Amino acid sequence: SSHAWPGATARESTGNALAALAAAVRPGGRVLFGEGIWQQEPTPAALAGLGAEPGDYGSLLELIRLAESHGLRALQVTVADQREWDLFESEGPIGRGQRWALEHPGHPLHAEVTAEVDARRSGYYGGYRSSFTLAYLVLST
């Protein structure tokens, strides 16, 4: 994922990650790459909910072509479905924070954590839930 690579923009980070993978995988080798994509043109609410700029992420086809531009060919392509993405948010950022807040009602950070959970929940359910997902590409040289 581009989250592990530096870049001025998310798109630049994705390119940097793909370049590093292309350099690391031996000829004929395979690598799994996961990255965020827009399933449809993002609305202002989706962009705001994700904290993204319009050019930060592309479509699935744009991601495949970006991988190809780095010498990597997609052997298998899948995307997270709505259930998987809902579980990620519910068990991950939103659910983990909510559970912590319920278990620590008197903690000095309770209000801050609750506000972060509420913001993430609003951003996801009110913004990018139906338009953003993760793509999983098995790539080869």
Largest sheet: 3 strands, antiparallel
By CATH reckoning, the class would read Alpha Beta
The CATH superfamily is: Vaccinia Virus protein VP39
Helix content: 40-55%
SS field, number of helical segments: 6
Rg on CA atoms, Å? 17 Å
Task: Tell me the series of helices and strands, N- to C-terminal.
Answer: HEHHEHHHE
Q: What quaternary form is this?
A: single chain
Helix/strand class: alpha+beta
Number of strands: 3
Ends apart, CA distance between termini: 18 Å
* Approximate strand percentage: 15-25%
Number of domains: 1
Output the CATH topology.
Rossmann fold
Strand order of the largest sheet: 1-3-2
Shape: elongated
Task: Provide the low-confidence segments as ranges.
Answer: none
Estimate the mean pLDDT confidence: 93
The CATH architecture is 3-Layer(aba) Sandwich
How are the SSEs placed, and which strands pair?
Layout lengths: L9 H15 L5 E9 L5 H7 L9 H10 L3 E7 L2 H10 L1 H11 L6 H19 L3 E9 L1
Antiparallel strand pairs: 1-3, 2-3
Helix pairs in contact: 2-6, 4-5, 5-6
Q: Mind explaining what this structure looks like?
A:
This protein is 51% helix and 18% strand. It has 141 residues and is an alpha+beta fold. The protein has a single domain (2-140), classed as 3-Layer(aba) Sandwich (Rossmann fold). It has a 3-stranded antiparallel sheet, with helices on one face. The longest helix has 19 residues, at 110-128. The radius of gyration is 17 Å and the shape is elongated.
